[in-house]
Amino acid sequence: MLACTAPVIRPQTLRDALRARADRPDATVLAGGTDVMVYIEAGVLRPSAVIDLWGCHGLRGIEVRGNELRIGATTTHSDVARDPRVPAVLRESALTVGAVQIQNRGTVGGNICNSSPAGDTLPVWLALDADFQLSSVRGTRRVAAADYWQGYKQTALAADELLTAIYLPDVEGEAHFRKVGTRMAQAISKVIFCGRRSQGVARLAFGAVGPVPLRVRAAEDALAAGAPVSEVVRLVREGIVPIDDVRSTRDYRARVAGNVVGRWLG
Ligand SMILES: Cc1cc2nc3c(=O)[nH]c(=O)nc-3n(C[C@H](O)[C@H](O)[C@H](O)COP(=O)(O)OP(=O)(O)OC[C@H]3O[C@@H](n4cnc5c(N)ncnc54)[C@H](O)[C@@H]3O)c2cc1C
């Protein structure tokens, strides 16, 4: 049985959610709960209060706004996976998050805010040049995905803010997503890769190869300038900082990160 007797606040509107966050910066935010409930059950998180966003109106859904796609923070991975307006690489990444039960409940905002370096959607936001909308009673600001993750589980989100939406620009070109794990499904990633290229633009973004999801800028510049694939692969292996851990070794991660890029670029 869950050992959690903390009060649960269930705001119905964004305004009430932001007020609750301002009043209780100590509280744990819960969206789908697929990370939070695991932490509570394991005893590593003992919330003083919970702000439950699941029923909050205006935070879930996908819509086109001008040249951008707006994805509400509590939009689930299943919602993302079945919407044809969503870029294919993001839909693919959503379908690798756990199994269907997790995809039906887990949210994109939860994946972003949980900030695990092995979060499967994180390199995709980087490769697609996403902006994150962070809101509080003080106002709303946008932070580029590239500036959001600042250290292991450290982010640009202030204590009184919520992630409210993700904005995707209408990008062109060819993109590719690849998750490498022990199995094809239900595995924590050893390497996650999302790449995108169009005329003069390249994005090479990785997860699970360092304390934060990251882009390898030197390799991106080389690719955009037309360098040979072998050179791009070399710069990728040089540019990531993987760790040895229970799931994999540093050498394996560096080798595989280069391989997935090499195979994509052919
Ligand atoms: C069996 C299982 C398998 C899984 N497999 C995968 C996998 O393959 N790949 C993967 O990437 N993840 C996986 N996960 C982790 C998890 O499902 C995802 O990270 C999911 O996207 C989390 O979303 P959530 O809405 O459930 O987050 P929650 O658990 O509700 O929240 C996660 C964190 O984000 C914070 N938060 C959530 N929403 C907001 C917001 N709007 N503003 C501010 N803070 C917020 C919470 O306070 C918490 O710190 C798995 C989990 C389980 C239990």
Helix-strand layout with pairing:
Elements (H helix, E strand, L loop, with lengths): L7 E2 L4 H10 L4 E3 L5 H7 L7 E3 L9 E4 L2 E5 L4 H5 L6 H7 L5 H6 L2 H7 L7 H6 L3 E6 L2 E6 H4 E3 L2 E2 L6 E8 L4 E7 L10 E8 L2 E7 L6 E2 L1 H8 L4 H11 L10 H16 L1
Parallel strand pairs: 1-3, 2-3
Antiparallel strand pairs: 4-5, 5-10, 6-7, 6-10, 8-9, 11-12, 12-13, 13-14
The structure holds flavin-adenine dinucleotide (FAD).
The site of flavin-adenine dinucleotide has 28 residues, from β2, α2, α5, α6 and β10.
Characterization of the model:
The protein is of the alpha+beta class and 266 residues long. It folds into three domains: 8-52; 62-169, Uridine Diphospho-n-acetylenolpyruvylglucosamine Reductase, domain 3 (2-Layer Sandwich); 174-265, CO dehydrogenase flavoprotein, C-terminal domain (Enolase-like, domain 1, 2-Layer Sandwich). The protein is built from eleven helices and 14 strands. It has helices spanning 14-23, 36-42, 77-81, 88-94, 100-105, 108-114, 122-127, 145-148, 217-224, 229-239, 250-265, and strands at 8-9, 28-30, 50-52, 62-65, 68-72, 131-136, 139-144, 149-151, 154-155, 162-169, 174-180, 191-198, 201-207, 214-215. It has a five-stranded antiparallel sheet with strand order 4-5-10-6-7. It has a four-stranded antiparallel sheet with strand order 11-12-13-14, sandwiched between helices. A hairpin with a 2-residue loop joins strand 4 (62-65) and strand 5. Helix 10 (229-239) packs antiparallel against helix 11 (250-265). The chain is globular and about 55 Å long. 44% of the residues are buried. Residues 28-36, 38, 53, 73, 96-98, 102, 105-107, 109-111, 113-114, 119-120, 162-163 line the site of flavin-adenine dinucleotide.
